[in-house]
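Today's session is about reading a structure prediction critically. Students often jump straight to the picture, but the first step is always the sequence itself: look for stretches that repeat, for charged clusters, for runs of hydrophobic residues. Only then move on to the predicted structure, which in these notes is written as discrete structure tokens rather than atom positions. Here is the chain we will use throughout the hour.
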Amino acid sequence: MSSIKLLAPPTNKGIKTLEKLLFKRSIELAALRVDVATCPKVLPALEGSLLNIPKLRHLIEDPQDLDWRDALVCTDAVVSLPDIDSLPDNVKQFALSEKAELVTHSVELDYDYWSADQILRSILPDDLEVPSAFEMVGHIAHLNLREQHMPYKNIIGQVIIDKHKYIKTVVNKLDSIDHTFRFFKMEVLAGEDNFVTEMKEGGCRFQFDYSKVYWNSRLQGEHERLVKSFGSSDLICDVMAGVGPFAVPAAKTRGAVVFANDLNPDSYSSLVGNVGLNRVGHLVRPYNMDGRAFIRQSLTYLNDPAVWEEFRKNVQVKRPARHPKIPPTEAEREAERLAEVQKTKQLHPPEGFKIFHHYVMNLPATAIEFLDAFRGLLHGKENIVPDDKLPIVHVHCFSKAEDLDADVIERAEHYLGASIKGCVVNIHRVRDVAPKKEMLCLSFRIPPAVAYADPAGESRPEEAR
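Below is the predicted structure for this chain, in token form.
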């Protein structure tokens, strides 16, 4: 019988309190006691017949030989009593040619040996799926347990903490969600009651209280995709910025200027902290407003000279370490001055009326409903901003429709009050969030009929077609 078949831990179906002693298992293996000088011959001679259990060695020091002159070669055969005739031919021939002694070697496996998946499989009913997939947010493991898992939720949490070195807290998302500030309510299943965590993404660090803000590690690819589309001279308006997963890397890695907003006071506080943590205070301007109001005021903020003066004051140039009592030389002062000039070059935008190149709206549940705020954004500016230079909007949304593209376009046109035919730049499928439910990002240039409209007027029927 192959030892590989005995990898499962003892069955402990239905337990709800973790007792590690219940997961001990002993395996008796056929082994050969050989002289240590014989060890180099073991692998070529016994290939295919050696012990093949993960994390266990097939060649070990003989525990009964205190002088370490002998070694044990563990085979892949499980026995009660060693019988050389029951072993594979290559093992038998090797034992005879090397005058090896056939013995029984006991391998002790316990709770620490088994994986989280194996332990949980031995505990949970056979018809219940093992919740082995979860989102890691810093030191926090975030589960989405089903109702059937709830009787076992605490033991599930404890096993996950035991088996993952960096996890200190295991939480389960509850059904309720705060729709105003966009964060899920959750309960601690095991570990520390500590939701303040740190993440690294896109070359940036993010610190936040996971119980009070929205963060989804599965959106890392979407963050990177959109940020890479920005240029160093672009002006970005992040309408639902959260703690800054678009805004901060857009500034730090692309050098773009970003006006970032979030309604949630805790998200705003974390956004401000992350701007400072990543030293991009000269490129990112945080706001704490309603998204619709922020869109309508965005160009007023962008064209405020005081904002740009504040950007310039926030420039931080990393200076070389030097002894505090030794003043910098003239050459060092000049190098620092040039570095500061170089870093502030992008903070002198073109003269005249400025507009954003991109608006990011990452609130997939409702962001598309905010598109009406763009109506009249550039009213009276028809002769200043050409149609082909109007801002591009990237709005995230969910859809369950069979024709995803047609659905998001139709909904966008409904809230804009105008057609976006000829204005669509891209419709990107971000990820599946549930069976027959997908997250998408619709990117389109604001139609002239929307941008230049009278914000106080009604949309004309021909615009809405």
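Discussion point for the tutorial: The longest strand covers residues 25-35.
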